[in-house]
Design goal:
20 strands; alpha+beta; 25% helix; Jelly Rolls; seven-stranded antiparallel β-sheet; six-stranded antiparallel β-sheet; Rossmann fold; 12 helices
């Protein structure tokens, strides 16, 4: 059973994954490694200050935390090292509005303060890390880099570090703590060396594919990116949206407007064509994908394959593999998102009732290609007790305005830019 009490200095030793909670190092192992999960209710913190001396001199190294949130607090500390006798002298990895924030301050002077646009307060298990080398600072999530900067202060940049805490930050203005965490911190560790990607992935109970990290990097960067959505009539968004936005248009609003002004230089292109099949997309790949020099390619296809002679599940698999290879071969090797088709009304479209087979094939291809997979098929069923949600369909096959918002929302959630303050995320379609 996990402890749910106030965890101060005396209790920290009992909770450490190593004897007496002391710092340790062996063959490049972590200097600090707290492995006992701790549930925090937003009022207390875990005191590991007996290990502060081991990390205080570090100019390079790695910080890693595995956690789950149970709230959407504006500021929640994951791990902090501070001088509790001074104001604003600390190194802190925290969540700010759900976004990952890494800051280093010396007596009020800000040495580094970076915040991602991607968010991690969704109640799922996340492993985040910061690596500081001699040339750069990288922020990671799920084992993959999601943000980088050439600025590189670390523990050794802040004098007088004597406090090391999980779930709260201490300074002279807040001797009892601030920025308390609500949820479970499952592990926190600090290494005196930079862990590589393979090592970071190995530390993650739930790693993400490299393309997920590359998409997060695109979302967190101010460098313009081109997002390419292609597929059939569902991506096209023709007719059945009833004048409302299609799912690529919702994505456009979320990224190009709601994520802030620098992102309005991103471009979102919809090259979906009504009636398209995977075979047709292979044939017209040049004009529907290559021509736009994308940074990210999203493919949602299959609804027409199932009703087209000669395009069974194995042909569909072969076409998806071909498309994935073509995307990888483009300049810059764009990140790939594969999106399962939505389910249809079996009473109106009996020839398409086995779309689950195509969703499964796409899932398998995504895993094989290490692409991001967004499972709209099972998402729709799971949200409606296992039944096809007819309220999301226009004619029993094409998503209506509600269905398109549901498709957009699923991608927004999977790619971790959901925000309760977003008009797109909280849109109510009557």
């Amino acid at each position: 059973m996990r402890r749910r009490s106030v965890l101060l200095a005396a209790g920290a030793a009992a909770l450490s994954g190593h004897p007496a909670g002391r710092a340790f190092a062996a063959t490049g192992g972590p200097l600090v490694d707290h492995r006992t999960p701790v549930d925090l209710a937003g009022r207390t913190y875990v005191d590991l200050s007996s290990s502060a001396g081991a990390v205080a001199p570090l100019s390079t190294g790695t910080i890693l935390v595995t956690f789950r949130t149970t709230s959407h607090n504006q500021a929640m500390t994951l791990i902090s090292a501070s001088d509790p006798s001074a104001p604003s002298s600390n190194l802190t990895l925290n969540l700010t509005g759900g976004a990952l924030r890494f800051s280093v301050r010396q007596k009020g002077a800000v040495l580094l303060d970076v915040t991602t646009r991607t968010r991690y307060d969704d109640g799922r298990q996340h492993t985040v890390a910061v690596t500081v080398s001699g040339t750069r600072t990288l922020v990671h999530a799920g084992g993959q880099a999601v943000f980088d900067t050439a600025t590189r202060p670390f523990f050794g940049s802040v004098s007088g570090l004597t406090a090391l805490t999980l779930g709260g930050n201490l300074d002279s203005d807040h001797p009892s703590g601030e920025w308390f965490f609500t949820g479970t911190i499952e592990r926190a560790a600090v290494w005196g060396r930079v862990l590589g990607t393979e090592e970071l992935v190995a530390q993650c109970p739930r790693p993400v594919v490299a393309d997920h990290g590359r998409i997060s990097t695109a979302l967190n960067s101010n460098t313009p990116a081109t997002w390419l959505f292609t597929g059939d009539s569902i991506t096209h968004g023709a007719l059945h949206t009833n004048g409302w936005r299609s799912y690529p248009e919702h994505w456009t609003e979320r990224v190009r407007w709601e994520l802030g002004k620098p992102k309005n230089r991103d471009f979102v292109i919809d090259s979906g064509v009504s009636g398209a099949t995977s075979a047709e997309l292979v044939s017209y790949f040049g004009e529907r994908v290559t021509a736009f020099s994308p940074k990210v390619v999203s493919i949602m296809i299959g609804t027409n394959d199932i009703a087209t002679s000669g395009l069974g599940p194995e042909k569909y698999r072969a076409h998806l593999l071909s498309l994935a290879g073509s995307v990888r071969a483009l300049p810059g090797s764009p990140a790939l998102v594969l999106r399962a088709p939505n389910p249809v009304d079996p009473a109106k479209w009996p020839a398409r009732v086995n779309l689950s087979q195509y969703a499964q094939v796409m899932s398998e291809v995504a895993a094989q290609q290490e692409a991001v997979f967004v499972d709209h098929y099972n998402d729709w069923l799971a949200g409606n007790g296992g039944q096809v949600p007819l309220s999301l369909l226009s004619d029993g096959l094409h998503p209506n305005e509600r269905g398109h918002h549901r498709i957009a929302l699923k991608m927004i959630e999977e790619l971790q830019i959901f925000d309760t303050g977003s008009r797109v995320c909280t849109l109510s379609v009557p």
